[in-house]
Design a protein that fits this description.
There is one protein chain. It contains no helices and 34 strands. It is an all-beta fold. It folds into 2 domains: about 270 residues, YVTN repeat-like/Quinoprotein amine dehydrogenase (Methylamine Dehydrogenase, Chain H), CATH 2.130.10.10; about 60 residues. The strands form 9 sheets. The chain has a 4-stranded antiparallel β-sheet with strand order 1-27-26-25, with no helix packed on it.
């Protein structure tokens, strides 16, 4: 006896054109290169070897952190900032004040990166020094929400140092030694994919890289028209830097280049308080106009018969794909990418005797 399909549909709509984002040059008060930027707790924090703080990207102040010098990397970990230097690290709830800690027995590499999931942060680019042998090992570090001390993540499947880390809405993904590894908690790891993958941006169930995308958590990858090279996804916009310019895209396919107003290289970009902020050489700061998030996910009209028909409105410049799943865990695309043309689209699928979930993904 054939069972009726079970439905799960995700669909995003958009009304704001990314080309409406214009940029203005601001004064940071520094003439040194601003090399890193993070947003959290209502504030942007930039680094020129010392911290600079702003709530709007326009007015910047120099907060007083203890012994703050040669600070090289900064991340926002859900409830606090983490800043790293060669021998120290700082934890700050708001960027205005910070507590100083000795990094030993850890050492810091300048490719350090971090990701946060369910209050737990995993940091890569650190090495753990063994005092008994003097040896140093590339090691993932774990920082729990209620802790101020790093703990090693062991065992990790690869002996080589990780190249990047990201967090989706349900797991960490780490790339090391030509393979992608996944973990729900940063403690137990499994091989997800073997092959080269550049650092992706996570957007509504899809991982986007320079040349590839994956809609099943990195198990398989689909080639895309590249190079796209997204750096940030926020307010339903993809954003990337191209030396002294900013590029915006609603779908990681069509990109709009916006003049930044500066010829200085831009080194980092972040989003907060409905504003994109980029920082660069010689203390350069640029801010976007208000970037209100695009409308939230909406469900299209559906009708289920002996066959299943999905109907949904589309937008010009957006691409859609229909996916099916037997268990809400493993999703399989049912067709190629479907271009939006501003009209309603429908797709019909015959029942196969098993229950399935369906969803429409937009990119």
């Amino acid at each position: 006896m054939k069972s009726a399909p079970m439905l799960s549909v995700l669909l995003a709509t958009a009304a704001t054109c990314p080309a409406q984002l214009d940029w203005l040059v601001r004064e940071s008060g520094s003439r040194k290169n601003l090399t890193a930027l993070a947003f959290g707790s209502g504030a942007f924090v930039a680094l020129d070897s010392k911290p600079l703080r702003s709530t709007d990207g326009v007015t910047w102040t120099r907060p007083t952190w203890p012994a703050a010098s040669n600070v090289a990397r900064i991340f926002y970990l859900g409830t606090r900032f983490l800043a790293l230097s060669a021998g120290s690290y700082w934890l700050s709830p708001d960027g205005a004040t910070a507590a100083l800690f000795d990094l030993a027995p850890w050492s810091f590499f300048f490719n350090a990166d971090a990701a946060i999931l369910n209050g737990t942060a995993i940091i890569i680019g650190l090495s753990l020094n063994d005092p008994s042998t003097g040896a140093s090992y590339n090691q993932l570090a774990r920082l729990n929400a209620d802790s101020t001390a790093f703990t090693p993540v062991a065992p990790f499947p690869s002996a080589q140092g990780p190249e990047w880390i990201v967090a989706t809405d349900h797991e960490f993904l780490v790339f090391a030694a030509g393979a992608l590894f996944a973990s729900p908690d940063g403690l137990s790891w499994s091989l997800r994919y073997r092959g080269n993958v550049e650092k992706p941006v996570w957007k509504v169930g899809v991982l986007h890289t320079r040349y590839q995308s994956s809609s099943n958590s990195g198990r398989t990858w689909q080639d895309t028209d590249g190079p796209q090279n997204p750096e940030l996804y926020a307010a339903n916009y993809f954003v990337r830097r191209e030396r002294d310019r900013i590029q915006i895209s609603p779908n990681n396919l069509q990109w709009e280049t916006r003049e930044s107003g500066t010829t200085d290289a831009l080194n980092a970009v972040a989003y907060g308080n409905q504003t994109f902020v980029a920082v660069g050489d010689f203390g350069r700061v640029i801010t976007s106009g208000a970037a209100a998030p695009l409308p939230p996910l909406v469900a299209p009209d559906l009708s289920a018969h002996p066959s299943l028909t999905l109907r949904w409105p589309t937008l010009v410049g957006r691409w859609y794909t229909v996916e099916s799943s037997p268990d809400l865990l493993h999703w399989t695309p049912t067709a190629e990418l479907i271009p939006g043309g501003g009209t309603e689209i429908s797709r019909t699928y015959e029942q196969t005797g098993i229950s399935k979930y369906y969803r429409v993904q937009v990119r």
